[in-house]
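Chain and conformation:
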Amino acid sequence: FRRPSWPHAVALKTNVRSRLHDASEIELVFGLRDRAGTPVTGYGFMFPRGDGTINIGVVVMSTSPSFQVINLPHLLDQLVSDHASRWRLDNASASAKVGGRIPMGGSVGPQAGPTFLVVGDAAGVANPLTGAGIEYAIETGMIAGDVVAEALQAGSATALQRYPKAVEDRYGSYFKVGRLTTRFLGNPALHRRVSRSVASSAAAAEAYLRLGSNQLRPGGLGPAELAYRAGRAISLVAPDS
């Protein structure tokens, strides 16, 4: 089952030929807007692939005010058009667009049953702030591997039921803060303020990226850590709000 009231994301991407296909940096684009000019909770991205193409796409969160009517292909086309000159994009060479829904923040369950464990996107463990899922698929796979080894050693499937708690211990607090933050950014006025801050301040941009990529410093007192602590305090009172 999936908890439909929890935030999820949709993504769409394409590969476009570019002379900058072997550039040494990626780009994230905040401040996306729909056709009516309403801020979109999400981001665009450009990843040089080194094979003659740039992977370019958009990720949109379900908390966007106009999520139900957003035309994702149009949003992606606009992103390609807006950045074609700087990234030397050959629009005519774009590959077919591919994408889909991304369940996030532990929104899918059950994660364990009498004879099975569920990991990665199948368990809805993508990052609720970004929709990124590769790191979490690998980590939940490793956690599941440890649990399965324990069950085999004990000769009992009962040990499999330790897996959901291990996942909760690893991600529970961060996922709660992520769901809360994603809803927070769904407010257009607050979204504009955060986008302006991230675009104009290197410190704010670094804090936003560290929070969004779950690269918090244990015991740190930087903006990312302070924001996370504030979100965690709120999430203790309203974990699913």
The two ends are 19 Å apart (CA to CA). The chain has a mean pLDDT of 89. The chain has six helices and six strands. The CA atoms of residues 9 and 102 lie 5 Å apart.
